[in-house]
Design goal:
heterodimer; A: alpha/beta; two-stranded antiparallel ribbon; about 45% helix; globular; B: mainly alpha; 2 domains; 4 helices; elongated
């Protein structure tokens, strides 16, 4: 056979490719024992921290930097009540927290803890006018400043916006990261699935108490069934022999599968007042005895979103800057990234967070 | 045909449609590739095309009224089952004269109601103290003497900790 002919014969090429793929598959399978060992030792959080304040299940973590902070005004991360907050400090080179610590910000993170059945009566009022007020009072006392910088992620961003509107005198700058504000959009599947004619949140909370972690995880998986249940396993199978890929995959998956329940009353309020009635954009959102008026937010605001976010589509976050009373407002939209990629993605680390640090540094004493 | 069986037929038709769409789009994807292309690359392209077609079909399906109706029925059943199991456990506990979830809920709500009343009263007192402080010449900016915002709640005594973990 002429060698020149064999190299262009598609059938021979297919055979060679099939043989190569079989050998590669054997090589990949030999990594299984190592994989299980690695999965057992996934590290959660990389930046050294200490707990400086506790209340009920809440813990306030202070991140320790090598030198003295450049800025006196503290920065506090407010995370969502779903999932764990270590996604913001996942690993070396993929930590939002590390960016701010390295830039000299005195950085803190609110870890809400895991709610028990007894916590099912906690409301947004308890979190916003209770825990958050106490945390900010503590930080102001500790730092000797009148105001604090806030960065809220996802549901934590919505809560941070409500807090800033109710207590504008406490907040120096507000950064929202993939925070849903306008729930009138029908772009996201969650908005459709929670419509009152299809989801009776009262019956659900009355029966279950807290919204179960497994339920929430199933819903998140269903947002991208092909991506989560087919593409991801194939991608994993193809790259499981690469150490860097494996490390990224295991840390991310550990976090994704580390769901926690949401207190029942908070879940009820979030679904009913926001997803079903969209009260926040109408300045009619009740939190305890008070009504949230977003026009009360007058501090500088930075709104960061991802164009491919399935959980919080851009249409839910974009209107925020138009609804606040601030004159200093900016939006950063990361193209081609999703909800989690905004925190841990390589492009977000290179493009978004240095900009966010600079924006905050220019507005912080 | 009864309403239930009609609804079931509609859901089955919607589910059938998603599979027909998926297969059609997949076949369309398969026929767009150049057979002369290098094998692993063409295989990846085919796979990408199939997955994109599937993702699009599923997204359409999950927005369809049939899927939403099916999801509602599933949720209703899950809630009903949960209520039945709650009732069963409550009855069993009651028979054994043990504390049930309803008992704990009642105590919790009573405590929360009392807490709310006390905090409201504390807020009112704080406002009055602030007014009095202002009248006798204390600085209104002094938060320890006069809280600026009475709506804030000091819920419980916070614990402060030291020590790295």
């Amino acid at each position: 056979m002429n060698p020149g002919t064999s190299s262009t014969n598609p059938w021979l090429q297919w055979q060679k490719a099939a043989m190569d793929e079989t050998l590669a598959a054997v090589g990949r399978m030999s990594h299984w024992p190592l994989l299980l060992e690695k999965a057992r030792h996934v590290r959660k959080g990389v930046t050294p921290s200490e707990t400086v304040y506790e209340e009920d299940r809440l813990k306030l973590r202070h991140f320790i930097s090598d030198g003295e902070p450049r800025f006196r005004t503290p920065l506090v991360f407010i995370y969502a009540l779903v999932n764990r907050p270590y996604i913001l400090d996942l690993k070396q080179g993929r930590s939002v927290v590390a960016h701010f610590v390295e830039q000299g910000f005195d950085t803190y993170l609110v870890d809400w803890g895991v709610p028990l059945n007894a916590d099912r009566h906690l409301t947004l009022d308890d979190y916003i006018n209770g825990y958050m007020v106490n945390v900010l009072d503590f930080l102001r006392q500790r730092s000797g400043t009148d105001k604090v910088n806030i960065l809220g992620y996802c549901m934590g961003g919505t809560m941070s916006a409500m807090f800033t509107a109710l207590h504008p005198d406490c907040v120096q700058n507000l950064i929202l990261l993939a925070a849903p504000i306008d729930f009138s959009s029908q772009d996201g599947l969650l908005n459709l699935w929670t419509r009152p004619e299809y989801f009776d949140v009262d019956r659900f909370v009355d029966a279950f108490g807290n919204a179960p972690a497994q339920f929430l995880q199933s819903i998140f998986l269903l947002l991208r069934p092909v991506g989560n249940l087919i593409e991801k396993p194939i991608n994993f199978y193809e790259h499981m022999h690469e150490d860097k890929f494996l490390d990224d995959f295991l840390t991310t998956e550990s976090w994704l599968n580390d769901n926690i329940p949401v207190p029942g009353e908070v879940y009820r309020q979030f679904v009913k007042f926001l997803y079903q009635q969209n009260l926040l954009t109408q300045n009619r959102m009740p939190v305890g005895k008070r009504i949230v008026n977003l026009k009360n937010i007058t501090c500088p605001v930075l709104n960061i979103m991802a164009s491919q976010d399935d959980l919080v589509p851009c249409s839910q976050g974009t209107p925020f800057t138009d609804l606040v009373g601030s004159t200093d407002r900016r939006t950063i939209l990361l193209q081609g990234s999703g909800h989690i990629g905004l925190a841990i993605g390589g492009r977000a680390q290179r493009e978004v967070w240095p900009q966010a640090c600079e924006w905050l540094a220019q507005r912080t004493s | 045909m009864s309403e239930d069986s009609q609804r079931t037929a509609e859901q089955a038709a919607a589910f059938q449609k998603i599979w027909v769409d998926s297969v059609t789009k997949t076949m369309q994807t398969l026929f767009t590739f150049n057979p002369e292309a290098v094998p692993p690359e063409i295989a990846r392209q085919i796979r990408r095309g199939i997955l994109e077609a599937l993702a699009k079909s599923w997204d359409e399906f999950m927005r369809s009224p049939q899927f939403l109706e099916g999801m509602k029925q599933w949720m209703d059943q899950a809630v009903t089952f949960r209520k039945m199991s709650n009732d069963f456990v409550a009855t069993a506990r009651s028979e054994m004269q043990a504390t049930s979830r309803d008992d704990i809920d009642t105590v919790m709500l009573t405590v929360r109601h009392m807490e709310k009343r006390i905090l409201d009263r504390v807020d009112e007192l704080a406002t009055q103290v602030a007014d009095l402080s202002n009248r006798v010449g204390h600085s209104p900016g002094n938060r320890q003497a006069a809280p600026a915002n009475p709506a804030r709640k000091r819920r419980r005594t916070p614990r402060q900790r030291q020590g790295a973990h």
